Amino acid sequence: MARPKKDNNKPSIRQKISTSFWKILAEGSYTDITIKRLALEAGVNHKSIYYHFKNIDAMAKELFYENAEEITSGAILGVNPFMVLFNNIYDFQKIVAENPEILNHVARARLYTRNDSAYLNSIFRTFIRTTWLNMLEIKEEDLSQNERADLNFIMAGIVTIIGQSEPSDLAHWPQVYNRPLGQGILDTLKNIKKAHA
Hints:
Elements: H1 13-27, H2 35-42, H3 46-52, H4 56-72, H5 82-85, H6 92-98, H7 102-110, H8 118-136, H9 145-164, H10 180-195
Helix pairs in contact: 1-2, 4-7, 4-8, 8-9
GO molecular function, one term: DNA binding
Keywords: DNA-binding
DNA-binding region: 34-53
């Protein structure tokens, strides 16, 4: 007997698990996510979860980075100062008009900035920090102690701002760079770049 053909319109088991992860996280806290609850929500066997992910923490990290890929294609995650620093145009309305699904991805990323999980916060901060350092073409180990402290301070502020804002508020974020605080961020990044040129 021939094996039934796969229905490409149905979500894969991994997609079901991913969708369930984001749903549970949006409805509660990170501690609410268990293998048992995920399996029940996704309608899959718990062994299927372990087939796709090592554990909940590994899943959280992997799914964050997959989600962030969708956002960074529009270069908006992390209140990206490089668009200002390198004279690029930042038009959030245009980005959303071209890809309306991006607001869902931003809403998901915001879940990692809430106060209920230091682990999720660290994933978010590490991603932003790595992205920024890559754009500055600087290695983490080359930073001075003061440069690290400055970046840590900026990252903590970004996590707080994103956690307290609605995804649609991103349209107004570039205006921060016209104020003294934003100018300070840009000056700090310029000085770090200059020190490592």
